[in-house]
What we know:
Elements: E1 3-4, H1 8-17, H2 21-28, H3 38-48, H4 56-83, E2 88-89, H5 91-101, H6 112-115, H7 124-156
Antiparallel strand pairs: 1-2
Helix pairs in contact: 1-2, 1-4, 4-5
Amino acid sequence: MAQKLDSPAVLKATNxxxxxxxxxxxxxxxxxxxxxSKRSIxxxxxxxxxxxxxxxxxxxxxxxxxEDFVESVATFACSLAKHxxxxxxxxxxxxxxxxxxxxxxxxxxxxxxxKLYKKPHVNDxxxxxxxxxxxxxASESNAKGSAAQAAANQKNQTPKPPATGSP
Length: 167
């Protein structure tokens, strides 16, 4: 998974980052040298459901999404390697971006050092339940505390002498 930063793939990713799409098509050798072909998409769909057919627009959209994903991962991973002041792109660079940005774990690669720093995902519904529980516990403790305080006040209060005088 080691690749020098001045290789054609990295140069292509940096050209995409700078917005120079024409040079990417020239570097890639035109549209015939795409990352994912329509044939491979047909094979993937046939694995799921052999009778399923895709519209040509859907095929093109899937190819574009796959290429954008790979370009995004490559660009970000190269910038991470550059940030580490390394001239070699390592698996941990790709893993970090895939796990943090896309929530994708790659089997066979150890991302243990990445997972140590990952924030736990808390569901909004779970968060609301926790706040309701905290509120109910606080109101119960306040009610118990005020009831105990009222009972203590009653015990400590001395009865007032009856009023002497008639109305």
